[in-house]
Design goal:
- It is built from 8 helices and 7 strands, in the order αααβαβαββαβααββ.
- By secondary structure, it is an alpha/beta fold.
- A 7-stranded mixed beta sheet has the order 3-2-1-4-5-7-6, with helices on both faces.
- It is globular and about 45 Å long.
- The protein has a single domain, classed as Vaccinia Virus protein VP39 (Rossmann fold), CATH 3.40.50.150.
- This is Methyltransferase domain-containing protein.
Length: 253
């Protein structure tokens, strides 16, 4: 479910303007922001790939490069697949069937139209309907849509979905330096979202600062994974030289 209401981050940037002729209007974004996560992205789906919220190709490409030597992989799963951009990573690495899962019917419709050869499944990622079917699972830009209390169910479902020895891989944003503007943008965005969800229903869950590596590592380890993390140096660096993103690698024994 690669669905981000928030700015796409320092790598993705705003090269594709949200307010382009093909992207959503300011009014459409406001309607989405006041909807639930599922309904909001059902509304946004036809124009999602024309916004900067789609995971940037540089992130997809560097992730694929980092995973290339960790296989072989047969069947692949894109968790929270959105419109299916992550499929290009799986098709590069996997020799078998590609499956995408998301809870937005309209996002899945866009994914299916772009890649009819893959299997697209509508389901809640907190209750994945798979058991030992995949060798590689990936996810892009989705963790901010899960509250910390919801992550264990997500990770336990991915663990069940993987065959023994399977790998769950996903990039996360590395904490920006205090001196970087992105630090203050993410802080401000999360505060605004907390206020919005306090005074407006239904809630729209999207937070940047609840998915830091120590907490993610702890939840993955509790689910049974062996966890490492590498810098995605090809996806850009902050001015102090630290990477924009880390690649989390969770292996099922």
């Amino acid at each position: 479910m690669r669905i981000q209401l928030s700015p796409a981050g320092p790598v993705d940037g705003y090269a594709r303007s949200v307010f382009s002729s093909q992207g959503p209007s300011a009014r459409e974004l406001c309607v989405q922001a006041l909807s639930s996560v599922e309904h909001g992205y059902d509304l946004l789906a036809p124009k999602f790939d024309y916004t900067p919220y789609r995971t940037a190709d540089v992130v997809l490409d560097t992730t694929a490069e980092a995973l290339a030597g960790l296989g072989p992989f047969t069947d692949g799963l894109d968790v929270c697949c959105g419109t299916g951009a992550g499929t290009q990573v799986l098709t590069t690495l996997c020799r078998g069937r590609i499956t995408g899962v998301d809870f937005s019917a309209n996002m899945l419709a866009q994914a299916r139209a772009a890649n009819p050869d893959a299997l697209w499944v509508r389901a809640d990622a907190r209750a994945l309907p798979f058991a030992e079917r995949f060798d590689l699972a990936v996810s892009f830009g989705a963790l901010g849509h899960f509250l910390p209390s919801e992550r264990p169910a997500l990770f336990e479902g991915v663990y069940r979905a993987l065959r023994p020895g399977g790998l769950f891989a996903f990039p996360i944003e590395a904490p920006p330096p205090l001196t970087d503007s992105w630090y203050w943008q993410t802080l401000g965005f999360d505060l605004v979202m907390r206020v919005r969800n306090t005074v407006w229903r239904p809630p729209f869950v999207m937070y940047y600062r609840t998915s830091r590596l120590p907490a993610i590592r702890a939840d993955l380890t509790s689910a049974g994974f062996s966890v490492t993390a590498d810098a995605l140096t090809g996806a850009g660096r902050y001015r102090d030289g630290s990477p924009h993103r880390l690649l989390v690698l969770a292996r099922k024994p």
